[in-house]
Design brief:
Elements lengths: L1 E2 L9 E7 L2 E6 L6 E4 H4 L1 H13 L3 H9 L5
Antiparallel strand pairs: 1-2, 2-3, 3-4
Amino acid sequence: MERYLNTNGNSPVTYYQINEDSIEVWFKGATKSYKYSYRKAGKKNVDNMKVLARNGSGLSAFITKNVRFQYD
């Protein structure tokens, strides 16, 4: 698990874990992680999320706009 850098300072994302075919995301105040997999959210979306997570910016906005309820 990696701490999300949150370079803009206003993201609800706190941590993430990159796996081979998925990404898990933790949000402020949540009691569990949300897993977005190739199977459910799509490879292109998950790969984009991995890049955003590593960059520490834009992950929450991407989730809201593209894969909000497509978690496992």
